Amino acid sequence: MRRLTKKKALTLVKELDAFPKVPESYVESTASGGTVSLIAFTLMAVLAFLEFFVYRNTWMKYEYEVDKDYSSKLRINVDITVAMRCQYIGADVLDLAENMVASDGLKYEPVNFELSPEQRLWHMTLLHIQERLRVEHALQDLLFKAAIKGAPPAQLQSEDSPSSLSACRIHGHMYVNKVAGNFHVTVGKSIPHPRGHAHLAALVSHDTYNFSHRIDHLSFGEVIPGIINPLDGTEKVSAESNHMFQYFITIVPTKLNTYKVSAETHQYSVTEQERVINHAAGSHGVSGIFMKYDISSLMVKVTEQHMPLWQFLVRLCGIIGGIFSTTGMVHSVVGFLIDVFCCRFQMGIYRHLKEAPQVEETGETSETLIPTENDAQQ
Known about the structure:
With 378 residues, the chain is α+β, with helices and mostly antiparallel strands. The protein is 35% helix and 31% strand.
């Protein structure tokens, strides 16, 4: 009984076979079939190879959510060179609540405003990247994934005395409240004031005013590789002594999670405006460099993703099965059309050969019926 049950089960399984085997004696190999098979296998290999590169490729996914962290401090990273002596200018931050933030983390270093050839090359390269980023936004995704680390060439120590250096490099970082504020560089050192703060500008002559500047770096939050900030490499040269430069910055909190970097930082966008201060012409204001920033309430989450393994296998099976089925159908259709054409061609030849003897017999009969001139005379 058990053997009969096994045989029935085996017979039932055989009947469910969706891939029946054809005996080799019924299989006929042709040159056309071999050619189509070779083309199909080559196409399968090429597409599978390309699909593997698609599987290895990654892309950036952007998500947005409300930023609920308002209690933490915001770090401002600054590296700016102003074409004035360090004793004549001061930099600080005044937030929206009129609180003056101490600038103890900033250093004032006398330098030359002109760049060395190596620094000028770096500066031009940075400006070129900035220009391409404005046109090709996908370039930022490549920078995120590559996590490129780059720094400008170190400034050479000048052999001149500090008193002969006409520019001042202000660099370092500060921690401020996570509210809108104003980072500015203007004439005179800042002093505390009951209503905010003030700068001792009365002791500085107007002839020494020159707010031509170069921003080597300005960022917010943790400094991470792969981010080129919009103001990096900005250079402004003013021919007027009383000049106001304004930068209006919108800061966006960002969570970056790639296969090389995982950090929380901030990105920003900026619009700029500049004008000459001339009280006689009605253009009022204070000469200096003003960076007014505001913080967005939305956070951007940037995550690097790639194709799952199961999806790659499904696409690979689709490529192989699709090409195999399609080439088989094409080969069958082409073979059928060739057979039909050959059959009609042979039938046409047969009909032509069959009608040819009748035409010859008809020609001979016509010749015997035509009378000649001698017969007519007789």
